[in-house]
Specification:
This protein is α+β, with helices and mostly antiparallel strands. The protein is about 55% helix and about 25% strand.
């Protein structure tokens, strides 16, 4: 149980940490990349081209205009290119501030690429481009791309290192947080085990003395009360010790291959006569040759618990159905019976220790409310689960699902 709690806490911690790290990674890489892109698009969109006397085009940007005197503007650009195309998309000429940096082959390749993309705005190499009105406007973004690449690399390495460090830190923290809980559970299990062993002797003495006394003075109701309560106490101690062992995975050491089908069938056979005596019909549908690695005694105990409950809480002239089959790499065991059933609210409570739906009847039947707790512990020890379908006062079905290849 403590191991499952530790795993769940680790999953929760690491999920939160992973989300935070991914958020930081996005904030330092993705968001700035979008900002650079939008700024470049805004810059190129604001570009205005004005005819001059020589019919050449001079670029102007709202962000790059500097006033000289009253009516003159100075336009300052760095590594920008303007390419002019005719109606047939053939290049007429191009303008740039450093023609030595841009050979005509580069310009030609740029035109071919932009036209092939069929997009108004995009990137080519380290340039953003805007294609509009038979003109291609380009803006150098080499520095931003280099910064983005370096940021991406270093932030990725940093995030990986941070995740590893936080993983071990979380593991250490959870270990420290759960240590008192683990010690408490171990003390509880130790107490139940020690108390069970200590109670065995006085219970055995009482039972023996009651038998001797009964032989000497004969049967009477007072002795029958002692015998009955002693038997119930002995059964309760046995169940508590069994549950304690189930919750301690280290005690489940038997791992052998066995035929589940034969095991379940063998466990069902004694209940045929019991069902007949209770005027109930027992229907068994067991798929043959289902193999499993584990403890066959635990499966036997599992079937005994559910069939005992079905007999106790089933109605006379009712029906009990038990099915075993393999599906989707899972062993499915279904136990259905007509009878009492439970409410929706009680579907999870019935697996709690000492919980009994009908306390008066359970007491009369000698039940202590530990059977389903033991069953759940057995199923969980094999990484399975128990589902409950029910209609109150009519029927109930327990569906046990266990992975066919149990983890060793």
């Amino acid at each position: 149980m403590i191991n499952q709690l530790r795993k769940k806490m680790m999953m929760l911690f690491m999920s939160i940490i992973s989300l935070v790290i991914v958020g930081i990674f996005i904030a330092t890489n993705v968001i700035p990349a979008f900002q650079y892109r939008e700024e470049a698009k805004s810059y190129l969109t604001k570009a205005i081209f004005i005819d001059e006397a020589n019919n050449r085009m001079t670029p102007r940007s709202h962000t790059s205009v500097q006033k000289i005197g009253e009516n003159q503007n100075l336009f300052v650009f760095s590594n920008t290119i303007e390419i002019y195309l005719d109606e047939g998309n053939r290049m007429i000429y191009y303008l740039c501030d450093r023609s030595d940096l841009f050979p005509e082959q580069f310009i030609s390749n740029t035109v071919n690429y932009v036209l092939s993309q069929n997009k108004e705005f995009g990137t080519y190499q380290s340039y953003y481009y805007l294609y509009k009105n038979n003109r291609i406007y380009m803006l150098d973004n080499t520095m931003n791309f280099e910064v983005a690449r370096n940021t991406l690399f270093y932030s990725f390495i940093s995030c990986i290192l941070a995740w590893i460090v936080l993983y071990f830190l979380s593991k250490f923290t959870i270990q420290r947080l759960l240590k008192p809980v683990e010690e408490s559970i171990q003390n509880q299990q130790r107490f139940i085990s020690d108390a069970g062993h200590e109670l065995k002797t006085p219970i055995s003495v009482i039972s023996t003395n009651a038998s001797v006394l009964e032989n000497e003075i004969g049967r009477n109701k007072w002795l029958s009360y002692i015998v009955k309560e002693t038997e119930q106490m002995e059964y309760l101690v046995k169940e508590l010790m069994t549950l304690s062992q189930m919750e301690d995975n280290s005690k489940l050491e038997i791992r052998e291959s066995f035929d589940v089908s034969k095991c379940i069938l063998k466990a069902c056979l004694p209940f045929e006569s019991l069902a007949f005596e209770s005027n109930m019909k027992l229907d068994m549908q067991i798929q043959e040759n289902i193999q499993f690695i584990g403890d066959s005694n635990k499966f036997n105990q599992l079937v005994t618990i559910f069939l005992s409950n079905a007999l106790k809480y089933g109605k006379e002239q009712g029906e009990i159905r038990i099915k075993l089959y393999e599906q989707n790499k899972k062993i499915i065991l279904s136990i259905y019976n007509t009878g009492q059933g439970v409410s929706e609210e009680e579907k999870t409570k019935i697996f709690e220790r000492f919980y009994r739906v009908d306390k008066a009847r359970s007491r009369k039947e000698g039940s202590h409310g530990l059977g389903l707790s033991i069953a759940q512990a057995i199923v969980k020890s094999y990484h399975g689960q128990i589902l409950v379908n029910t209609k109150e006062n009519e029927w109930i079905e327990f569906i046990i699902q266990i992975p066919a290849k149990e983890k060793m």
